[in-house]
Amino acid sequence: MRLHVADHPLVAHKLTVLRDKNTPSATFRQLVDELVTLLAYEATRDVRIEPHEIETPVTTTTGVKLSDPNPIVIPILRAGLGMLDGMTRLLPTAEVGFLGLQRDETTYEAVTYANRLPDDLTDRQVFLLDPMLATGGTLVAAIDYVLQRGARDVTCVCLLAAPEGLEVVEQAVGERVDVQVVVASVDERLNEKKYIVPGLGDAGDRLYGIV
Ligand SMILES: O=P(O)(O)OC[C@H]1O[C@H](OP(=O)(O)OP(=O)(O)O)[C@H](O)[C@@H]1O
Ligand SMILES: O=c1cc[nH]c(=O)[nH]1
Ligand SMILES: [Mg+2]
């Protein structure tokens, strides 16, 4: 597993406002969108491209275009949905799949309740979106899901990660496949309820308000 922590003053500034418990839902949504666009720039560094010849008004030249098939972006419902627009702003031709996973707040195990994905993800570049990597259970379940469908190139874009969760993902993925995790911050730890500290609380509730 490769870990990339975005190191940028704008990311740090926006994240601080996001963490503030007094930040209202509308501002929270806007900030998630802005942060994802900044993270997407880092997360797409290895997006597959191929040579592409064009004519400028002056001459012909060889540039690049995204290779076919285009990447697939998969927000993990609910909270990951808040990251979708920020990601597809940079990758407008990406396909979008959906995965619904909810963490059981007693056992902390991820339960799958929805999926709408292509059956075959062989040779597809996959971007998984979820703002919170806490125990890592949800992300490991999502990674397993796409690996079972043949994906071998997976980038996870998260806002916050706990060191404990990163370790779980690292152990689960090992050297099996090329999994990259891009985050805005690796926080201190998990608390007794497995919430990220200092964190930002429940991302889904702060985005959408309904528990
Ligand atoms: O790393 P984990 O310990 O598995 O926890 C992280 C998961 O918890 C949150 O989702 P939640 O289950 O609250 O669902 P929601 O997005 O519908 O609120 C978050 O968006 C992650 O998906
Ligand atoms: O801190 C946390 C942990 C899990 N899910 C969240 O939304 N926040
Ligand atoms: Mg939630």
Automatic annotation (TrEMBL):
Instruction: Look up keyword Transmembrane helix and say if it applies.
Output: no
- Could you state one GO biological process linked to this protein? UMP salvage
Molecular function in Gene Ontology: GTP binding; magnesium ion binding; uracil phosphoribosyltransferase activity
Kindly tell me the pathway this chain contributes to.
Pyrimidine metabolism; UMP biosynthesis via salvage pathway; UMP from uracil: step 1/1
Highest taxon listed in the record's lineage: Bacteria
- Per UniProt, uracil binds at 196, 201-203
What is this protein called in UniProt?
A: Uracil phosphoribosyltransferase
Q: Which organism is it from?
A: Xylanimonas oleitrophica
The lineage, from the top, is: Bacteria, Bacillati, Actinomycetota, Actinomycetes, Micrococcales
Gene (UniProt): upp
